[in-house]
Write a structure and sequence with these properties.
Elements: E1 3-7, E2 11-17, E3 20-26, H1 28-38, E4 42-46, H2 55-62, E5 67-68, E6 79-86, E7 89-96, E8 113-116, H3 125-134, E9 137-140, H4 143-146, E10 147-149, E11 155-157, E12 170-174, H5 175-181, H6 186-194, E13 199-203, E14 209-213, E15 216-220, H7 233-246, H8 251-265, H9 277-289, E16 292-294
Parallel strand pairs: 1-4, 1-8, 2-6, 4-5, 8-9, 9-12, 12-13
Antiparallel strand pairs: 2-3, 6-7, 10-11, 13-14, 14-15, 15-16
Length: about 300
């Protein structure tokens, strides 16, 4: 079985969406972990959570056969966010932050791939360098490096340490993150970033997604869905992309599966977030037939 390590905080989320309020487990290690598990990956979570993390959440994680590495229990409270979501807009507020992940948590791991997906500056540059030394396939969602927090916890985006880009093979970003990483103009940003990172997967919501590999670029459409819960879709997209690549599938096909998986997850609630592999492949292969090659 191919193994993958997913790095980032487990979270407790307070979600306000469609006139409903919910408290639930969250964070990239949760959403990415249940996704890679669905792809039959041997999944390790390199994470931190606090003494307030509910035991029922821990049992839920274990039901997916997710392995939490040593040193995960921190001294600070679990990272918590309040997310107010309206259509495709989200306002996020950090309510508490757990301890940073530690390099020593990687010591006993030998995965084929690592997905770094922080939420609140919990991963250091040195940690990324250590990940680069351990694997040949390293993916990054930069959200937690780009995020900054006002005194009241509300989130805004700023730049990241440029050297991080040279260490990773894959970056997944949305439109706003791409503006920060690139040159503001969408096409110029794609061109600029593609010179620094081998593979880009840029998600644009209803407008689809772009896969860029050097001088090759493709636009992938998204299937129509009935929106139930959008939280976690980006983490699910990147985890499914990396899982498929790690199992030997080619990049464009893997990207189509990833877009299918991430989009379909928004039709489902957090307890059954990931559709069946059969459904993912069915929709992903339909998207693959409709891919457009584009010139940058």
């Amino acid at each position: 079985m191919v193994s993958i390590a997913i790095v980032g905080h487990l979270c407790i989320d307070w979600i306000l969406f469609q006139d409903r309020i919910r408290f639930q487990i969250g964070g990239p290690t949760y959403y990415g972990g249940i996704t890679s598990s669905k792809f039959n990956m041997n999944t390790f979570l390199v994470t931190k959570y606090g003494p307030d993390f509910p035991e029922e959440y821990m049992k839920f994680l274990k039901s997916f056969n997710l392995k939490i590495v040593k040193g995960a229990k921190g001294k600070n409270l679990t990272t918590k966010f309040k997310h107010k979501i309206k259509e495709d807009k989200r306002i996020s507020q950090l309510l508490s932050k757990c301890d940073d992940v530690e390099e020593s948590q990687l010591d006993e791991l030998s995965p084929e791939a690592i997905l770094i997906d922080p939420v609140a500056q919990e991963v250091s540059f040195d940690f990324v360098k250590r990940c680069r030394e351990k694997v040949s396939l390293l993916a990054l969602d930069p959200q937690g490096f780009l995020r900054r927090f006002y005194h009241n916890g509300y989130v805004y985006l700023n730049s990241l340490k440029e050297e991080i880009l040279s260490l990773v093979d894959i970056i997944k970003a949305d439109r706003e993150e791409l503006k920060i990483l690139g040159k503001n103009d969408f096409i110029k940003s794609l061109n600029s970033l593609s010179k620094k990172v081998k593979t880009l997967l840029i998600t644009l919501g209803k407008e689809g997604a772009f896969l860029v590999m050097g001088d090759k670029a493709y636009k992938i459409k998204v299937p129509k869905i009935k929106l139930v819960e959008p939280i976690g879709a980006g983490d699910i997209t990147l985890s499914s992309f990396l899982s498929s690549l790690s199992k030997g599938e080619e990049a464009l096909y893997s990207a189509c599966l990833a877009v299918a998986c991430g989009t379909l997850s928004m039709e489902r609630n957090f307890k059954s977030k990931i559709p069946s592999i059969k459904k993912i492949k069915e929709v992903g292969e339909e998207l693959f037939e409709k891919v457009e090659k584009i010139n940058l």
